Amino acid sequence: MSKGKSFSLQVPRTIPSPGRIISANGKSWIEIAERRIPLGGPLPEVKGDERLIRYTSSLCPDCLRLLPAIIVERDNKLYIRKICPDHGLIEELYFSDYSMYSRLMKWEETGKGLGGAGAYTSIGAPCPYSCGLCTMHENHTALANLVVTNRCDLSCFYCFFYAERAGYVYEPSIEEIRFMARQLKRQSNGLNIHTCVQVTGGEPTVREDLIDVIKALVEEGVDYIQLNTNGITIARKFVDNPNDGVSYVRALRKAGVSVVYMSFDGVTPKVNWKNHYEAPFAIEAFRRGGLPNVVLVPTVLRTINDHQL
Question: Which of 171, 195, 205, 225 is nearest to 278 (CA)?
């Protein structure tokens, strides 16, 4: 984060109640978080040069109204279209290559329902206004992303989530993180369902209490913990003092981290300005520290690094 800027901590201290549908005088709306959000709108039309792929529903980005939507193919690209009565026609690129989309959809698996997993949210309103696992889900959570901070030691131009861009710091306390883990565990419902969490951000390693965060998740019964990181903190520790870097990795492993999910956007510094020079040191620290399961994860940017895939 840039020096000279400060951001207030904004973490909800209570969990908002799920939304509920209210109907009166022939109209319906959602009441949630002290807001009234209207429902519905006209169904968009398919244009002459388009092919209808499927119907769906989507939100208005301005007022969060739930709208009927269509996904259409045009010029080998997919677009999603919706019409908000208050904000007009909204069309956005849904998938940039229909041929690739068709290949991927061959592997689609919608699941067979919860299969005994415990739903812990009542259906008081349609998705996404009743957050949590409800009986409409076709599967339980496979890997839950748990954001432990939105602070970061980088400010990548393509990232939308770091604190300076958001304008505030989101960083839940360890007790709040314990609550999140307990909510996630409720889906197990006494069954042998593994609870898997990816600790993410922001950049999780900017938290000085990250080891305690990992320990708390394990104490709450999380079975598998994956750490999402750019590796820079570990690399700097390793360069300054290899023993410190290795000790930090060992502490992560001992606390409960099983796999590292590390950003790596390319094999040259021109393409991967983010951590090209730091990545080898971070990987060596992970290797020496007994945490060799490192997955390199590129953010693919057209014309910038897609030629290195």
Answer: 205
Measured in whole angstroms, the distance separating CA 263 from the mean position of its chain's CA atoms is 15
> Which domains can be identified in the chain, with CATH numbers?
28-105 (no CATH), 144-308 (3.20.20.70)
Question: Tokens standing for 172?
Answer: 């839940």
What's the 3-state SS for 53-108?
EEEEEEECCCCCCEEEEEEEEECCEEEEEEEECCCEEEEEEEECCHHHHHHHHCCC
Per DSSP, which regions of 96-208 are E strands?
144-147, 196-200
CA 154 to chain centre: 18
Nearest to 262 by CA among 290, 289, 291, 242: 291
Name the strands in the sheet holding 77-84, side by side, starting at the edge strand that comes first in the sequence: 51-59, 66-74, 77-84, 88-95
Residue pair 83/42 in contact by the 8 Å Cβ criterion: yes
Dihedral of CA 220/224/230/231: which sign?
A: positive
Which structure tokens are listed for 159?
Answer: 């990232």
pLDDT, one tens digit per residue, over 222-271 is 999 999 999 999 999 999 999 999 999 999 999 999 999 999 999 999 99
The tens digit of pLDDT for each residue in 56-76 reads 999 999 999 999 999 999 999
Strand partners, 67: 58
Structure tokens at 272: 């991967």
Q: Is 75 exposed, middle or buried (0-12, 13-18, 19+ CB in 10 A)?
A: exposed
